[in-house]
Fold this sequence. Notes:
Layout: H1 2-17, E1 33-36, E2 55-58, H2 64-74, H3 86-89, E3 95-98, E4 105-108, H4 122-133, H5 172-180, E5 209-210, E6 228-229, E7 268-275, E8 278-282, E9 300-301, E10 310-311, E11 315-316, H6 328-349
Helix pairs in contact: 1-6
Amino acid sequence: MIRKNASMLVMAAIAAIVVCNTNPASAELVFNWVTVGDPGNVADSFGTGSVADEYRIARYEVTNNQYTAFLNAIAATDTNNVYATNMGSDARGGIIRSGSTGSFSYTLKPNMGNKPVNFVTYFNAMRFVNWLHNGQPSGMQDASTTENGVYAINDGISETRAVDAQYFLPTRDEWHKAAYYDPRNEADGGPIGDDHHWLLPTMSEFTLSIVTAAASGNGDISNPGGNVVNILNGADWNALDGNVTTVGSAGTLSRSYYGTLDQGGNVREWNESLINDNHYILGGSYKGFEADLFSVTTLAHAPSLIMPDNGFRIASPLPPEGIPTVSQWGLAVMLLLLLTAGTIIMKRRVPQAA
């Protein structure tokens, strides 16, 4: 019986190892991913949107809730200004900072946790990705947390993606494909003319319904449905003429083919790709125009620019099939169970006194 119990504990310990990233420790951030398949797809008529490999991209923009966790982990002393004071002082920002250097802490404004983080520079976005890649550690802003990993932070222009990146900012092609590409032919519901690229990131060519968020309330979109996007200052809430809205609240009828939401409107999203030493920042925003959403429209900003409608979305390689990962929680349980099993076995082997 003792051996049987010990064997069961060992088996439970092994099972504890098989804890996937979808069930991390409670302190770890979890992202809702969509898989962008169809590797080697055709580009659009301007040569944009072809990607050789499959990858994942976040269904939603990075939120204030997620960015606040990042700040509390690495910005008690904010050496590199990953927090912008506009996040607290501007009514459209979502994060308040308290304390002083060495003991800064960060909290969410009411109803702003599930809104996209804004006032972020390209440097901020790179540091967030480095932090994720490095395992979401706590501590000073250094090479082990924010300054290296995926991007060796330098001037915002010369950084390149590490070949072993576990997270990254999408290139223009990766971002474009997730937003506009559709492998279906027109006869099967795909884009007109079988060119496989929609004009809008809501699987649409023409129709566009302007969002109207609740004038009072929590900032959810009040008219979810097909082709609903947050642009033209249509989302009036929190006593503001135009504001960010809850990520994904336009509903699944406003998704891209692969399932992303808000790649049109809400906040513009930083891209890894450069044009004339500026980074592409695509998708339009809550105060932008319809043309900002078009697949042929491009915009680029300097990497240090802080704006109320600048945000970002992250991407990731596909996890290897059939290879489980070990979370901190799973490792702790595994060690505890193995220790217990070892204790039982040792008691069995030690002769009892007569």
